[in-house]
Specification:
- Its EC number is 3.2.1.67.
- One of its GO terms (biological process) is cell wall organization.
- InterPro entries: Glyco_hydro_28, Pectin_lyas_fold, Pectin_lyase_fold/virulence.
- Helix content is 12%, strand content 47%.
- It is built from six helices and 27 strands.
- The chain starts with a helix and ends in a 15-residue tail after the last strand.
- It has helices spanning 2-21, 37-40, 70-80, 122-125, 161-167, 359-364; strands spanning 28-30, 56-58, 84-88, 93-96, 100-112, 115-118, 130-132, 137-139, 141-151, 155-157, 182-183, 185-196, 199-201, 208-219, 222-224, 241-256, 263-264, 268-279, 284-289, 296-310, 314-321, 328-344, 346-354, 369-383, 390-395, 402-413, 421-425.
- Strand 2, helix 3 and strand 3 form a beta-alpha-beta unit.
Length: 440
């Protein structure tokens, strides 16, 4: 009997030790305190427990910029999944140096008060990544599942300077381009995602790419992509890109990047943007769509209100591909309301000769994307004067139909002087304001 007891005790202790070894050094798990009767029934908008009701998981911080804690990070995400909270603490940096598959999440809060920083090991990241064929996109990690909340006062740092320097002079859409750069935040097959308060810093490529995602919101976020080298500026560092998304909301957010501020791409619908500030961007765009031969693309049901666009290439823009072997589709039910532009090259633009296609080729192989029910209401401010007195250019492709285009309360001036000009070509019906054709 004594021998059996000793063997059992030894087995128990061995098991306890093996369990402890599963917890990384410096990590901790704290169970949530029992909530009061009033708080016990309080739930978040998905019907799950609030922060105070969740067990909290932490891991050690990195000691330096090469101290990779990706394995610890993955452990914590698994431990916090299904009702927990993973807290990345203020004042600490967590370096990620390998790709992470987070496609299995379910009811998780990730509170980022510190900094997640990806290594700038270009050799590694160009050989080990998650790949998406749409515009040859790659990413550090994939977030998927349901009921996912990423929030706090911290930073997602893409460590992009090395990428900006190495990519200088290249073009992402060049068919021969093999220099692929990671996207900072990507969701795929995700439902109910909330991102709040996070700072996105120096993404190597797009800041976000939302794929096959339903009901995702961003609130009080900040996006910055700034190079310290004047000869290698950030390129393709879009704030928001999407593919096959139903329900995309962006509110109270600031974007200071070198490309599109907001740019939903094929098959994105039910879009709400409110209180968005953009500086030095390519505008708030619908598209581009119609890129791939034989493929139907669409964007529908977008309401964009209280938008500020400063020092940019474009303001409110619709863009579709033209050229040989392009696709087809439509953009419908889009409203831009209360848009303020300053020093913007093209304040209002309908571009159906995207991407870098000359007028001759665009006329020979026009866009096949139809555009309908688009409203520009109360757009005011100043252009840069790049296009002289032209402050809006609405040119519909001869291969498509553009109808229900309406402009109202447009008050945009140009430093070129004289009355501003609105250009419209191949638009069906009255657009609500006086416009002239290219010939005129």
């Amino acid at each position: 009997m004594k021998l059996l007891i000793i063997v059992f005790a030894f087995a128990f202790l061995s098991s306890a030790v093996s369990i402890e070894r599963l917890i990384p050094a410096g990590a901790s798990v704290v169970e949530a305190p029992s909530p009061s009767l009033n708080k016990r029934w309080a739930k978040d908008k998905w019907g799950n427990g609030l922060e105070s009701q969740r067990r909290a998981v932490t891991i050690r911080a990195s000691k330096n910029d090469t101290d990779d804690v990706a394995d610890d990070f993955l452990w914590a995400m698994r431990r916090a999944n299904k009702g927990g909270l993973f807290h990345l603490e203020k004042g600490k940096t967590y370096v990620i140096g390998k790709k992470l598959d987070l496609s299995w999440l379910n009811d998780i809060y990730v509170k980022l008060d510190g900094e997640i920083k990806f290594t700038n090991n270009i050799t590694y990241w160009q050989s080990d990544y998650f790949y998406y064929p749409f515009q040859k996109s790659i990413t550090f990690w994939v977030w998927g599942g349901k009921n996912i909340k990423l929030y706090g006062s911290g930073t997602l740092n893409g460590n992009g300077q090395a990428w900006y320097d190495a990519f200088a002079g290249k073009q992402i859409l060049d068919p021969g381009n093999t220099f692929l750069r990671p996207i900072l935040f990507l969701t795929d097959n995700a439902t109910n995602v909330e991102v709040e308060g996070i700072k996105f810093l120096n993404s190597p490529c797009w800041n976000t790419f939302l794929v096959r995602t339903k009901d995702i919101t961003f609130d009080h976020c900040r996006f910055d992509a700034v190079s310290t080298n004047v000869s290698s500026r950030p390129a393709n560092t879009d704030g928001f890109d999407s593919l096959n998304v139903d329900g995309l909301t962006v509110t109270n957010t600031e974007v200071n990047v070198g490309d599109d501020c907001f740019s939903p791409k094929p098959n994105t619908t039910n879009i709400l943007v409110k209180n968005l500030w953009c500086n030095g961007t390519h505008g708030v765009s619908m598209g581009s769509i119609g890129q791939y031969p034989g493929v139907l693309d669409f964007i529908s049901n977008a309401w964009l209100e209280n938008i500020t666009l400063l020092n940019g290439q474009n303001g409110a823009r619709l863009k579709a591909w033209a050229g040989e072997n392009v696709g087809y589709g439509y953009i419908t039910n889009i409203t831009y309301k209360d848009v303020h532009v300053e020093n913007t090259d093209h304040p209002i633009v309908l571009d159906q000769c995207y991407f870098n296609i000359n007028e001759t080729a665009c006329a020979q192989y026009p866009s096949n994307v139809n555009i309908s029910d688009v409203r520009f209401i109360n757009v005011h401010g100043t252009s840069s004067g790049l296009e002289g007195r032209v402050v809006a250019d609405l040119t519909c492709s001869p291969g498509a139909t553009c109808e229900g285009i309406h402009l109202e309360d447009i008050d945009i001036t140009s430093p070129a002087g004289g009355p501003p000009v609105i250009v419209c070509n191949n638009i069906s019906g009255d657009i609500g304001v006086e416009c002239v054709s290219d010939e005129e």
